[in-house]
Amino acid sequence: MKFFIDTANLAEIKEAYDLGVLDGVTTNPSLMAKEGISGDAAVKAHYKAICDIVDANVSAEVIATDFEGMIREGKELAKIDDKIVVKIPMIKDGVKALKYFSSEGIRTNCTLVFSAGQALLAAKAGASYVSPFIGRLDDIAYDGLELIEQIVHIYHTYAYETEVLAASVRHTMHLIKCAEIGADVVTCPLKVITGLLGHPLTDKGLEQFLADHAKVNKK
Ligand code: E4P
Description:
The protein has helices at 10-19, 29-34, 40-53, 67-80, 92-104, 116-124, 134-139, 144-158, 172-181, 190-194, 200-216, and strands spanning 2-6, 24-26, 57-61, 84-89, 108-113, 129-132, 163-166, 185-188. It is an alpha/beta fold. β5 (108-113), α6 (116-124) and β6 form a beta-alpha-beta unit. The longest helix has 17 residues, at 200-216. The site of erythose-4-phosphate has 11 residues, from α7.
């Protein structure tokens, strides 16, 4: 399973990349705003800065919601760097845009997916990735992981090439369950990735190993 980091924060992206387990980056307009990035030139420069940190793909989201606007913006974003994947919302014009970019060989990530029907549309339109949002479904008492399972099953049944990119991942158990289910990718905050590290028995074991070593290696 691939690990993407879901942030526009350069320090966090670098930390995750330096760990050696990062396969990509996803951003969205809210994450860009959180970093205080505004204006076309600054947004493009920030995407370029992210691309320069990682040797991995970087999802950059269009703001337009009409077909022509999404095509114009998507092409501009794709020009920034070969690593850019154009992120398109799951709306009617978005489906048309996914089909257009797919025929042009530009990779896409279909975002804001909350149902199996939407995921089917994204796959049929040739999206490279589909992003079902687990946490936001859980927030309103729907089972986000069940949706991932459903989409993985449908895509396998019909051998769709679209990769299932589990998004809105809030904690380590979301990530582990996605791995069990067979999601292709999980995108999550840095704390979810580093949260996989800790175990009290690891700490206790290491402490004991070092203490035993020190006992017989006194200076
Ligand atoms: C990913 O592409 C999404 O932008 C992201 O995972 C949304 O997560 P959130 O629901 O925690 O904002």
